[in-house]
Amino acid sequence: MAETQAAKRLREYETIFLVKPDLTDDNVDKLKERVRGIVGREGGKVIRFTVWGKKKTLFPVAKQPRAIYIHASYLGSSKLVAEVERNLRNFDEVSRYISVKVAEEVDPESRPVLEDLKLAGDVEETRPGGAPAEREGGFRGEDAGEGADEESTEEA
Known about the structure:
Blueprint: H1 2-8, E1 10-19, H2 25-41, E2 45-61, E3 64-76, H3 78-90, E4 94-106, E5 117-118, H4 130-136, H5 143-155
Parallel strand pairs: 2-5
Antiparallel strand pairs: 1-3, 1-4, 2-3
């Protein structure tokens, strides 16, 4: 009986992979479904996919200054992670990936499958007048912050 309980417990992993920035939303969805199929075929359980959107990278990756970031959270064994990474390596759309173990011995029944998320990503820097407008509404010139500090010292 102890063997069946040990077999039910899986490890939780996260994989973040970067795809080419010119991919359409449909192609990103197809890529997610391919990874979801690999996890299901190998006996794992996908918890959630989060598309972080198109972001600027620290340095050019595959000669591109931007990439679409996709975060996958799933349960499985170390063999599953090796299979996911092997497939990501073979996908032409994927330029980088990294997998991290989040937790040991997670009960798959305790982790519900969550709805996939899609975030907006970075705002294009080429918008005229975008940066100065954000700075005008800052906190540095307001008197409320200075008065709050004086009140807190009086109470002490």
